[in-house]
Design brief:
The protein is an all-alpha fold. The protein has helices spanning about 1-25, 30-40, 45-70. The radius of gyration is 28 Å and the shape is elongated. The mean pLDDT is about 85. This is Ubiquinol-cytochrome-c reductase complex assembly factor 3.
């Protein structure tokens, strides 16, 4: 009886995995759809890509400057407190 239960559970598990794989293969896009999606990405536009590079360079510069300073910029944020 225990052997029959093991066989049934194993068969059910293999069936569930097979159904999951089948559903996954149905929803994944085909090669033509993948090419179309890649063509429409923002990175495909050279002007947009150059803007992104400039923005990333500016952000890296700001982060580098912030790492080199000992000032706590978070202290200046929030409601104004009276100075003693």
């Amino acid at each position: 009886m225990s052997g029959l239960r093991t066989v049934l559970i194993s068969t059910g598990f293999v069936g569930v995995v097979g159904i999951g794989y089948g559903m996954w293969s149905v929803i994944t896009p085909g090669e033509e759809r993948k090419r179309e999606m890649l063509k429409n990405l923002p990175e495909a536009n050279p002007l947009r890509m150059e803007e992104t590079r400039k923005r990333n360079a500016l952000m890296m510069q700001v982060l580098k400057e912030a790492a080199e300073t000992d000032d706590n910029i978070a202290r200046g944020l929030g409601p104004m407190r009276s100075q003693k």
